[in-house]
């Protein structure tokens, strides 16, 4: 098939590269000229395992190319995927500005019948709106079919997830359109869920909202465990062995972040409000997560009262391991609070420092290793469970810091290994040591 993918962010780029890998001819369109120039050279502007190899291989086989020109990108295409960002408005609803701009460009440049497939996460009813918007301004004599194909990849393992996900959801109100999409997706060898448009849109929001709820649930259990002498590691393990519950997403920590869970939970609340339904569980999840992001600094302040002038090492800036993404990362609000309290912040992240520099206030010291950040610090705070941070031996904190005090927001170490050292250790939902 000849496919265009609009938007080359985490979702669009991975989608484009993977659709090329399974044998389609794909052109990716983006308005960001710098990004397109980089991509044309086979260089990935984002950090994602295996992606650059896919880009290079498929560019060299002439199955994948990139352009900023809609006319060129859409020529001869049977299917057009929309994968631009849908951030949140101040009121929590989804901001569809980029999707609307894409629709206007499609109206101007489509010259043959196409199926438009929405990958972006959009509120229920948006696909119908997209179709109406494109048709309203359509210049050529073409037929538009519309489908929803929400994305479930996880940043950090996006390529792997595309080939090994749990399911592919395709939603359309026409069986013929569903048949075409089933054929396109056959190469991924995953179970396919066929639904109508609105159910597909809803599956995405409901799935993310459920996962956010599961995280907040275990975080609340962790906070209570701390107060009553239970250990959340054991609680999670004991709960997760129940197959009705499942062990995934039961790691207590300092809250979820990233470009999806925060905005998607707020967006579904907003969809519910428009439908005059009070989404009580999710309103509490959003509040609970907000509180959870603050607890690591609360713990620091309880322990030290003042951190003015103290060197604080902050390890991990990305919202989760294996990504360079800092969108809605807990590290941002944590570092802002530490700076407000007068701390001298020295930080290290294996991939996200460049992105963090763009959003963090002046005055943060970026270092080139865990050692450099931790050396002579009075306090070390772990915010992201990167492999290198988890594997950095706890004894090293003892040798690098004079009076080592570690606040672990991701429970990277077992209490048994910490107990063998002289490190004072505070984590989430477990007794403190020292
Ligand atoms: P992103 O911000 O990384 O990328 C969006 C891209 O779209 C950018 O490269 C931007 O330049 C481009 N763009 C903006 N306007 C454009 C236009 N008019 N024409 C062409 N290109 C344009 O976004 P993302 O993280 O890839 O997310 C895309 C969508 O997928 C969102 O709706 C998001 O909620 C959803 N989603 C994201 C993830 C994830 O893990 N990131 C997972 C599942 C679903």
UniProtKB/TrEMBL annotation:
Cleaved signal peptide residues: none
Keyword NAD: yes
Record's keyword terms, sorted: NAD, Oxidoreductase
Entry-linked SUPFAM superfamilies: 6-phosphogluconate dehydrogenase C-terminal domain-like, NAD(P)-binding Rossmann-fold domains, UDP-glucose/GDP-mannose dehydrogenase C-terminal domain
Boundaries of every UDP-glucose/GDP-mannose dehydrogenase C-terminal domain copy: 313-415
Superkingdom field: Bacteria
GO MF term (any one): UDP-glucose 6-dehydrogenase activity
Catalytic activities: UDP-alpha-D-glucose + 2 NAD(+) + H2O = UDP-alpha-D-glucuronate + 2 NADH + 3 H(+)
Entry EC no(s): 1.1.1.22
Keyword Oxidoreductase tagged: yes
InterPro entries: 6-PGluconate_DH-like_C_sf, NAD(P)-bd_dom_sf, UDP-Glc/GDP-Man, UDP-Glc/GDP-Man_DH_C, UDP-Glc/GDP-Man_DH_C_sf, UDP-Glc/GDP-Man_DH_dimer, UDP-Glc/GDP-Man_DH_N, UDPglc_DH_bac
Pathway: Nucleotide-sugar biosynthesis; UDP-alpha-D-glucuronate biosynthesis; UDP-alpha-D-glucuronate from UDP-alpha-D-glucose: step 1/1
Assigned protein family: Belongs to the UDP-glucose/GDP-mannose dehydrogenase family.
Protein name: UDP-glucose 6-dehydrogenase
């Amino acid at each position: 098939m000849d496919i265009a993918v609009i938007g080359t962010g985490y979702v669009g780029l991975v989608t484009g590269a993977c659709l090329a890998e399974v044998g389609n001819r794909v052109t990716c369109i983006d308005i960001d000229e710098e990004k397109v120039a980089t991509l044309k050279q086979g260089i990935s502007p984002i950090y994602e395992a295996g992606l650059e190899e896919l880009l290079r291989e498929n560019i060299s086989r002439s199955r994948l190319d990139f352009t900023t020109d809609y006319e060129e990108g859409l020529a001869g295409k049977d299917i057009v995927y929309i994968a631009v960002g849908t951030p949140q408005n101040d009121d929590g609803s989804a901001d569809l500005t980029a999707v609307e701009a894409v629709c206007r460009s499609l109206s101007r440049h489509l010259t043959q019948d196409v199926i438009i497939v929405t990958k972006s996460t959009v509120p229920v009813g948006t696909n119908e709106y997209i179709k109406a918007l494109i048709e309203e301004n359509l210049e050529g004599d073409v037929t538009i079919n519309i489908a929803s194909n929400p994305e479930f990849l996880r940043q950090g393992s996006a390529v792997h997830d595309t080939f090994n996900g749990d399911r592919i959801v395709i939603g359309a109100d026409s069986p013929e359109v569903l048949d075409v999409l089933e054929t396109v997706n056959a190469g991924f060898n995953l179970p396919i869920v066929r639904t109508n448009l609105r159910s597909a849109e809803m599956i995405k929001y409901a799935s993310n909202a459920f996962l956010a709820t599961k995280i907040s649930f275990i975080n609340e259990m962790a906070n209570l465990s701390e107060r009553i002498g239970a250990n959340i590691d054991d609680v999670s393990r004991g709960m997760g062995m129940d197959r009705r519950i499942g062990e995934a997403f039961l790691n207590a920590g300092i809250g979820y972040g990233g470009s999806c869970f925060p905005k998607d939970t707020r967006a579904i609340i907003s969809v519910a409000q428009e439908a005059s339904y009070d989404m009580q569980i999710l309103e509490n999840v959003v509040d609970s997560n907000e509180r959870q992001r603050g607890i690591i600094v609360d713990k620091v302040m309880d322990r030290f009262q003042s951190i003015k002038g103290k060197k604080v090492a902050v390890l991990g800036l990305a919202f989760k391991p294996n990504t360079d993404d800092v969108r809605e990362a807990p590290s941002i609000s944590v570092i802002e609070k530490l700076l407000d309290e007068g701390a001298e912040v020295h930080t290290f992240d294996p991939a996200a420092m460049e992105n963090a520099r763009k959003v963090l206030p002046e005055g943060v010291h970026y270092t080139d290793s865990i050692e450099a950040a931790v050396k002579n610090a009075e306090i070390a705070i772990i915010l992201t469970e990167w492999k290198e941070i988890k594997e950095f031996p706890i004894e090293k904190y003892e040798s690098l810091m004079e009076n080592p005090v570690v606040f672990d927001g991701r429970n990277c170490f077992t209490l048994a290994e910490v107990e063998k050292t002289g490190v004072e250790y505070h984590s989430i939902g477990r007794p403190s040591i020292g």
